[in-house]
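FAQ
Q: What does a multi-component entry look like?
A: The components come first, one per line:
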Amino acid sequence: MSGNTFGVLYCVTSFGESHGPAYGGVVDGCPPGLELANNDIQRELDRRKPGSSRHVTQRRESDAVEILSGVFEGKTTGTAIGFLVRNEDARSKDYSAIAEKFRPGHADYTYWQKYGIRDARGGGRASARETVVRVAAGAIAKKWLKEKYGTQVRGYLAELGSKKLGFGSWEEVDRNVFFSSNAKVVPELEKLMDALREAGDSCGARVNVVASGVPVGWGEPVYGRLDADIASAMMSINAVKGVEIGAGFAAIRQKGSEHGDEMVPGPGFASNHNGGVLGGISSGQDVTVSIALKPTSSIRVPRRTIDSRGQATTISTTGRHDPCVGIRATPIAEAMLACVLMDHALRHRAQCADVTAPLAPNR
Amino acid sequence: MSGNTFGVLYCVTSFGESHGPAYGGVVDGCPPGLELANNDIQRELDRRKPGSSRHVTQRRESDAVEILSGVFEGKTTGTAIGFLVRNEDARSKDYSAIAEKFRPGHADYTYWQKYGIRDARGGGRASARETVVRVAAGAIAKKWLKEKYGTQVRGYLAELGSKKLGFGSWEEVDRNVFFSSNAKVVPELEKLMDALREAGDSCGARVNVVASGVPVGWGEPVYGRLDADIASAMMSINAVKGVEIGAGFAAIRQKGSEHGDEMVPGPGFASNHNGGVLGGISSGQDVTVSIALKPTSSIRVPRRTIDSRGQATTISTTGRHDPCVGIRATPIAEAMLACVLMDHALRHRAQCADVTAPLAPNR
Amino acid sequence: MSGNTFGVLYCVTSFGESHGPAYGGVVDGCPPGLELANNDIQRELDRRKPGSSRHVTQRRESDAVEILSGVFEGKTTGTAIGFLVRNEDARSKDYSAIAEKFRPGHADYTYWQKYGIRDARGGGRASARETVVRVAAGAIAKKWLKEKYGTQVRGYLAELGSKKLGFGSWEEVDRNVFFSSNAKVVPELEKLMDALREAGDSCGARVNVVASGVPVGWGEPVYGRLDADIASAMMSINAVKGVEIGAGFAAIRQKGSEHGDEMVPGPGFASNHNGGVLGGISSGQDVTVSIALKPTSSIRVPRRTIDSRGQATTISTTGRHDPCVGIRATPIAEAMLACVLMDHALRHRAQCADVTAPLAPNR
Amino acid sequence: MSGNTFGVLYCVTSFGESHGPAYGGVVDGCPPGLELANNDIQRELDRRKPGSSRHVTQRRESDAVEILSGVFEGKTTGTAIGFLVRNEDARSKDYSAIAEKFRPGHADYTYWQKYGIRDARGGGRASARETVVRVAAGAIAKKWLKEKYGTQVRGYLAELGSKKLGFGSWEEVDRNVFFSSNAKVVPELEKLMDALREAGDSCGARVNVVASGVPVGWGEPVYGRLDADIASAMMSINAVKGVEIGAGFAAIRQKGSEHGDEMVPGPGFASNHNGGVLGGISSGQDVTVSIALKPTSSIRVPRRTIDSRGQATTISTTGRHDPCVGIRATPIAEAMLACVLMDHALRHRAQCADVTAPLAPNR
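Then the predicted structure of the entire assembly, as tokens:
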């Protein structure tokens, strides 16, 4: 299985480049009978759409999705769902200056060395614009998980550069362009981003994602663990450099008597340091994931680099870029978590459909 | 592909339980002609062996490996390499007390709910003893990577509970039971562990792994990224709750002008915040990975839990357990990184064998 | 990996329905640097196009392909190649009569029972029109195999109903609408088909495919054999009911002293009963494959069947159908063989790139 | 996924060589709660065991299986089932004569050219003795299919060389060493085999396999078809050169009005030319498969060949070989069919667990 497909049973294949004619994908393995319209996907795509505020790339894309197969009279048929999102605002001239140089921190150099050829326009295949495919696939997964298990996947921006945003409420998340759950910090974030843009620099971010209503039992020991697949899915998002489940790196400094979540009749847990996964299998608690996104590589600040002949030079990137890719990452991270959960929901019922969870319904 | 196999081309399949007759594995896809003897694997297994000091589990296992196939007259033949490690010191009576209760933080509960049945002896399939298979598979990968590309995969304990160990030298790592690269901190670590054991508690740890001599070009966009596969491999190790590549979570607070590694003729890089992976493809720099391991769940400190009928009770685990699973995790993390790198080395030459890296040999 | 993707390294994903907006596919894993234009694919699509003679379906489709990604300045970049073929002549009214009945020999019934829902228009996903995706993917594989190894994949119609066509010459194959290698039989085939069409009936066919210039060494024991993957690829073509490699079923009546191909210095073989595959690995001889295609299920002759309420009824299908699907199957079978060979070429060099075949270059 | 693993959810991994210490395998994905003892597997292994009559190889192997994991207190736990079959009677001296020459029709040459190294003892990995792993994995699949769906997988020898055996009764199959369903032909078969052995030659065979009680709905369009996976599984068996489903190659000469199985209320079918698979999905009828096995390559009749330096020579193989590998192939073919069916049973319920087949229970 090559690199542009993921998932065992809920299987997503992706194609497209930043300045090519279109992005598209194939979702294979979706159960039949799910009501699905373009708009179910469009709603999620609109959440990650560029140009929605001055704090993100000014590229103007309607990101209109066209479902090409797998849906008949408003319902999924169980066959492959193909979909397409045309690129509309690809200004390749913006990138002519960088075609011969490698942006520090960018995939320019590695693609070129690996393949001996690269589509430099807008980052080509390495562009974060590829995440439209993930969000589309995730929209279907979210809908199915919600309707079938009541599982809800939600995320929020937790840190922007050095600023910790705190958690406010889920309702707030979609009311501001930062996906902040805390309304109070928004003015400060705007100031922070304005300053950054003025400086021609970028910053990193942390996004937290939470899946609630996950039944106990999803995940496969020992390599196909739920948390291993989540880690892979998250790390595959552009710019992600770290993934935590539950307590994450804080678990290093915890004692066993503190970290191990005590159990109470219900069955339930007195805490959730494990982030809803024990031994690679969902525990029935919220699955909590946190990711680190590095600062955007395409910045105006001049930096030392080399050109395609290997000579020293400097580069300053002036195209339309997100000064913080983390700002638009929330719907993407949600999508990836939803896809992994749906994959494991299907895998679980394949093997364990006959099992009645001894202490609680595993649905 | 079910959960007990990983890798696309360097493919590892694992079986075995803590108190069953044996662990074993199958390594498929290894190139032919590699010199391989039992001892090449045994050397690595001995590094993770239990009972090597008072700070780890006192279970006595020789962990002797038997290669069953795939090697002829001392060389790999290109066919599947089967191997076996018999369990010798399985005292199931130790576990009778916990068969009816769920250890907080352990997979006891999730396995039972998922499968409706569980082998409670020693944690069954959830036991970290499964890592013998990983270490064996990793030993082969390490040998091949070293001989073919000069790639070296090494790790060390970076943090033990609240104690940061610092980096001393690679030579020191195998001279102490903690895999500390810094000899000076060892007495303090011993004291720390003695106190922990006395308290009947456990602690977490951080392990860092570094692969040097990795050629540019390994990795596949966009889901089969090198870093995504590393994240999955690491998160699949028992007790791991977080994975970082390069700057990891510190990247959140970095500016783009700080994080993006400037390039210099060579070609080379002025820094390595990206941890040797750009756009999911190795950059030719050291691949640097850091993982967080949670504290052991099996502790003597009494904790609230429920029994298999769902009733409230308490549990205190007195079997032979590592008070910090992180101590023995270094060879395991090295093994997983080696397996992922070898898989991608093969995947890369499958697709790009004809490519000459424009600026440097990608071997 | 779900059902609409095949191949390990040369990986093809397909979507689309007969009367939906479009068919499309994603080819992943193609090496970079291959010159590729729409026309390289179009040429092959035109060979299987409907409406090319009175002996095949009269549906009018230009089958124009649009490459959407993975190609930059006329060369493959190593990233996923997405492509699209719009449906233009979908007359769904033709099928309204059969929406409530199951055609004997057709997938109507099994899709409906499996998924609980079916797109009955033109056979939906079960339509042989899906083979446009295969032919497109095969066109890329053919081109790469030819340029890289000199491997050529060619096929011809060997039997039409009870008529054996014999082998004439490869040059003749594309000069007649039957893909007959023998010009002499064409008038007879036309008469046969005219009679069949008049009778409102259909017939089966045999197609032979031959790959020449296949190096020794492609294929993986023991389940991933070259012949096993060929068998799967061929049997996955609509209407195929049998697959033979080399002597095929005739091997039953052969003695070992007859079947086993003697070897001669060169190295070479005195015969090719094995069809170019020994132990699942290519021998360097021509790979010879033969497939049986059943007669079309959609016929005018009235037949007994049941309706969607399970009641007895009769059905007579009057839409536009191929009276013999085998006629257009030659380019499809070639495409599938090419895809499998390319997949194994990549798999072979992944594992064995360092091996020099002791007796002959395995390229 | 490398070549020694097959199946998506019921996943079998195999290792071992003819004269190595052992064969073994890992069955992953088996549902929990299945009662399983060594003897459930042993019974099937005994059916294919060598040395059971003078008509098969005289190698003496007890083929005793040891289950190493995945079973606890007599039931499967849902974790990987590892098992081992030690080789006991490997007389490598028998093969010293052929180590330097290639047997016509054998994998000797292709392994050597592919890998640059080969274990010539007893055919190494290419030996049909590998089928112990398949039969063991199939035994588990058979048991599960039987208990869960009432599905029964049975086979018989249908042709031996030029002799057609006809179908007698299922009861007879295990009463003679030929797996003939027809008792009357047994004396003739014995005579035929005696003559063949005396002549130092070998012959081919046809084996038919039938799965009854298969629910409607197993299989995935369009590449992961049930029949495509069956074709692959069958063609991967040593010596198989052809696979038919249902009417197979006879479908070429059938008219559509003859081949297409008419449907009757029930729902049912008036005939079964399709062999229980329509559009790649099981129809609820018997799944009927027929395979062609070529004559054994290791024969006493002298044949022309080349040696490892490429020089012309002759070879006469005198080791212990089956004069007709087809004789012992029946349990192997049954096993492969059972594995594929179980894989698809799991895949089907993963995607379609919520579907109620409109016209009949699909269980």
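Q: Is there any commentary attached?
A: Sometimes. For this entry: The CA atoms of residues 200 and 300 of chain A lie 5 Å apart.
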